[in-house]
Specification:
Layout (H helix, E strand, L loop, with lengths): L3 E4 L8 E4 L16 E7 L5 E11 L4 E4 L11 E11 L2 E4 L3 E6 L4
Parallel strand pairs: 1-8
Antiparallel strand pairs: 2-5, 3-4, 3-6, 4-5, 6-7, 6-8
């Protein structure tokens, strides 16, 4: 995923789409071992700002999508981090983080 840019208070319309890859081969990681997914959003201070429901949309090709919901998670400007949590029962694995820059409107 490329760096994303948002505005403080924004509620994006388009869903977030992730392609999960194997970090050693850089190929799509099959997600058949997982039964669920969530997207974690950390603010500039490192504090978890939102946990968003996610769906594994294409298990064979490592595809995950998440909707934003009705409130903006972007309460201050700065560098935010997204991370996908993949689950199976009580076990979980995490992807590497992805950066998002949040700016004040007009900056």
């Amino acid at each position: 995923m490329n760096e994303l840019t948002f505005v403080v208070g924004q509620i994006p319309v388009k869903e977030l789409r992730f392609s999960v890859t194997d970090e050693t081969t850089i190929s799509a990681l099959p997600l058949s071992d997982y039964t669920g997914a969530q997207v974690l959003l950390f603010g500039p201070d490192g504090v978890l700002r939102a946990t968003m429901a996610a769906t594994i949309t294409d298990s064979a090709n490592g595809k995950v999508e998440s909707e934003w919901g009705g409130t903006s998670p972007f309460d201050v400007s700065g560098d935010y981090r997204f991370q996908v949590m993949l689950t199976n029962g009580s076990a979980s694995d995490y992807t590497t983080t992805h950066r998002a820059v949040v700016k004040e409107l007009g900056v």
